[in-house]
Design a protein that fits this description.
Elements: E1 2-3, H1 19-33, E2 40-41, H2 47-52, E3 59-62, E4 68-72, H3 78-89, E5 98-99, H4 103-120, H5 122-131, H6 133-142, H7 150-183
Parallel strand pairs: 1-2, 4-5
Antiparallel strand pairs: 3-4
Length: 184
């Protein structure tokens, strides 16, 4: 795992300005999520992150010579990563070089958005509402499903918002049809 940058800096977890702060953030991440493996930390400028791919949450599988043999645009595409790992362990190249699955992985991630923003601080929450309203809304809706796991909360929020959007479109369509009938 490579700790690159704070995607949503706030008062509690700002963007590190020193390598010591960045290392401290990586240790906090490791402890908070109980991550059992080593977390490497990029430099302050994010040189490795930018060289690999500046998107957040990408996952890369490298061979023993350091060559990237598989890339997932979203790290939580566990099925694609598992298939690539099985191939690599068997001494074969993965059947796919890249997974572009995005929507399902992002929907699952929405189950943790509110918690992550709250942990970062009020400014992070405000920035998300201003800069990525759909994500902020999905994160807030996901909190309504708190008995579920984070992945399930995210999927439930995405489905709820999708159904709400369909209902609104249906109401608009019904209203428009009535307007057309009255006009005739």
């Amino acid at each position: 795992m490579l700790n690159v940058r704070e995607a949503h800096p706030g008062e509690h977890f700002g963007q590190p300005t020193t390598i010591a702060q960045k290392l401290d953030h990586a240790q906090t991440l490791k402890k908070f999520f109980g991550i059992p493996w080593m977390i490497a930390t990029d430099d302050i400028e994010g040189s490795l992150h930018r060289a690999l791919d500046p998107k957040p949450n990408a996952a890369f599988l490298m061979d023993t010579e350091g060559l990237i043999i598989f890339r997932s645009l979203w790290a939580s595409d566990q099925n694609a990563m598992r298939q690539a790992l099985v191939s690599a362990v068997a001494g074969r190249k993965p059947s796919k070089l890249q997974s572009q699955r995005f929507i399902g992985a992002v929907a699952k991630a929405m189950g943790q958005v509110q918690e992550v923003m709250d942990r970062a601080g009020p400014q992070a929450v405000k920035d998300l509402w201003l800069g990525a309203f759909p994500m902020a809304l999905a994160g807030r809706v996901a909190t309504l499903f708190s008995p579920l796991s984070p992945d399930q909360r995210g999927i439930a929020a995405a489905l709820t918002l999708g159904l709400a959007a369909l209902a609104v479109l249906g109401l608009i369509g019904s209203w428009a049809n009535k307007q057309l009938l009255y006009a005739i």
